[in-house]
Design goal:
The structure is a homodimer of 223-residue chains.
Chain A lengths: L10 E4 L4 H12 L4 E5 L2 H15 L3 E5 H7 L2 E4 L6 H12 L3 E4 L4 E4 L2 E4 L7 H8 L4 E4 L6 H4 L9 E6 L3 H12 L4 E7 L5 H17 L4 E5 L2
Parallel strand pairs in A: 1-2, 1-4, 2-3, 4-5, 5-8, 9-10
Antiparallel strand pairs in A: 6-7
């Protein structure tokens, strides 16, 4: 059962063939939300969409990222950090007037694990906000385990999703999108200027995963 | 009941008359750990110590920050960000050879709430590590509600404490120090280079507190 805020809305997932994007698409399709999977390669997107439609019984189609950006009412950006800015610049016109949900974590990796990369604009969310002047950009889904999301054997993903942004109507909508995933709760997590640490926090969860052999996530207490 | 790692160790809390420091001191004293409260003003420290000894039945004394640094086997730094570096520079010799636990969040505040301040060294923890070359510096207790810690009516503080650092023996010790507080669990959260986002995350929790009228904290899931 999805929130009425989501009624009649199609969710496009750019980078929807990667583990995070496909995992989110899987969950929303299962929840009855129409999903368009976007990818650089339209054929790969269509193949992933057919597989997810079959697995979930949901309404899933595939397209290149540009087509997905056009078809989505809400557009989720789950692409690698490398190329994030360029992709959004290309799609800015298609994304105008829409709510864009940035899930991207600017991280580097070396032998000691993951670490936060510096971002000129402050965070991936602020970079997206700067590039997409005509969209309403919200940050969310940074800290959710892609492994759990994309595992059809996992019924519930027990974690909170921090939703960041400066426009209340848009953060409420994205909280509903989080709440549509069984086990997940959308929690307002602050303004866009406080997105950097939420993105970077994924590096800490990767350290936790290594130490404890876990697929860790976050819960906010007393809320 | 405290972990054997903590046996025979005295914990000094610099900034122990502030809400965070006093809250931590209260919890450790209640747990039977000998505590020295440090403050810029020795008389204020002694008054706070007498009050806490009375309230908890624990072993609590007070001193200026220098005396506390000398007396503690583990020294917790819970001072304001403004003056953090200077204080540690002054106390570097007293802190040599000890485990120093930095709890400081470099935050600014304005009408829109809290936000992360830039730190030249990357984080308060990395600044402390740079200044205290002869100590083992660990980051912890950044995201725990001072209000809950310092409220004698609150029996349990249900939150995880992320413990950050590059020396396993020291992070294990500080996890035990977290575990000594009823409700709290110490969780290894990564290396010192990933401390910035944990410190800054307190700004997000302050946003959560405003929105939901809560005293929020974190739990790490699947651990």
């Amino acid at each position: 059962m999805t929130d009425s805020l989501l009624e009649g809305r199609t969710v496009a997932v750019l980078g929807g063939t990667g583990p995070q994007g496909r995992g989110l698409a899987r969950r929303w399709a299962t929840a009855g939300i129409p999903v368009v999977i976007g990818s650089r390669n339209a054929e790969r997107a269509e193949a992933a969409a057919a597989e997810l439609a079959e697995a979930t019984g949901g309404q899933v189609s595939g397209s290149d990222n540009g087509g997905a950006a056009q078809q989505g009412d809400i557009v989720v950006v789950a692409v690698p950090w490398d190329g994030h800015k360029e992709l959004l610049e290309q799609l800015a016109a298609d994304l105008a007037g829409k709510v864009v949900v940035d899930c991207v974590n600017p991280l580097g990796f070396d032998k000691q694990g993951a670490y936060a990369l510096p971002v000129e604009e402050g965070s991936a969310l602020q970079q997206a906000t700067a590039v997409l002047a005509d969209s309403t950009v919200v940050g969310a889904f940074h800290n959710v385990s892609a492994v759990l999301l994309d595992d059809p054997e996992v019924d519930r993903v027990d974690t909170d999703v921090l939703v960041l942004g400066d426009v209340r109507e848009a953060t409420d909508l994205v909280q509903a999108l989080a709440d549509a995933i069984p086990g997940v709760r959308g929690v307002y997590g602050g303004r866009a200027r406080n997105a950097h640490q939420v993105e970077a926090f994924t590096a800490n969860l990767i350290s936790v995963n290594r130490r404890y052999k876990a697929h860790s996530g976050l819960r906010v207490t007393d809320v």
